[in-house]
Amino acid sequence: xxxxxxxxxxxxxxxxxxxxxxxxxxxxxxxxxxxxxxxxxxxxxxxxxxxxxxxxxxxxxxxxxxxxxxxxxxxxxxxxxxxxxxxxxxxxxxxxxxxxxxxxxxxxxxxxxxxxxxxxxxxxxxxxxxxxxxxxxxxxxxxxxxxxxxxxxxxxxxxxxxxxxxxxxxxxxxxxxxxxxxxxxxxxxxxxxxxxxxxxxxxxxxxxxxxxxxxxxxxxxxxxxxxxxxxxxxxxxxxxxxxxxxxxxxxxxxxxxxxxxxxxxxx
Length: 267
Prior knowledge:
There is one protein chain. This protein is of the alpha+beta class. The chain has two domains: 3-154, Regulatory protein AraC (Jelly Rolls, Sandwich), CATH 2.60.120.280; 162-266, Homeodomain-like (Arc Repressor Mutant, subunit A). 48% of the residues lie in helices and 19% in strands. The chain has helices at 3-7, 90-95, 111-123, 131-156, 162-173, 181-188, 192-202, 207-224, 229-235, 241-252, 256-266, and strands spanning 10-18, 25-28, 33-40, 42-47, 50-55, 59-62, 68-72, 79-86, 105-106. A five-stranded antiparallel sheet has the order 1-8-3-6-9, covered by helices on one side. Helix 3 runs antiparallel to helix 4 and helix 5 packs across helix 6. The chain is globular. The chain starts with a helix and ends with a helix. Mean pLDDT is 88; it is low at 1-6.
């Protein structure tokens, strides 16, 4: 069995970019996962509604179908290396990494830990002679990001277990339109103030904001499966499909009907 078949992941392309010409990209969406590692300089990366100012040593992640934009700083334009990759195991591997869909910007890492992997991928014939070796190099690169996440996972074990209880309740009840932050507080037997403090401390969002984000993420999956906008809205707790469409468009930069059509064309 080939390495790529065992791991369900493979690199698609890799390269290096000097942005002294102020090369930028977006807003737009990509069809694969992409990791950029900044060698020097600085710039900004926008994912959804959040913008990150990044400098040398940091990395940022682009996920499929996310609306993103990135640009170099005009005075200190960045230089970076990047790798595109695809596969059914990508999301699972990234979920255990310090660089993941919920945290698309990573703290600085020394060049000697990451740059050799990127440079090796840039030198390889990804589709021919080095195809299987390239998968191994990519997994080693992702392993560095996973190792960086280990201390964070240990720290999470010490956190208030009530936040996990709230998230389990959301996963179980988000499809009901009447389900809201007050419902969560009532089921947990805590005040709205306590619940809000738990979420702000852990996530930086209110319970209502997290619930909306969760509903939108679940709706993406249903649209990708081919469900209609109305079916998707009702299945994810949005009583009014028109309201759902407005929220989706504000969040992703396109109406859900267009998002659904992209996957219908692929299929």
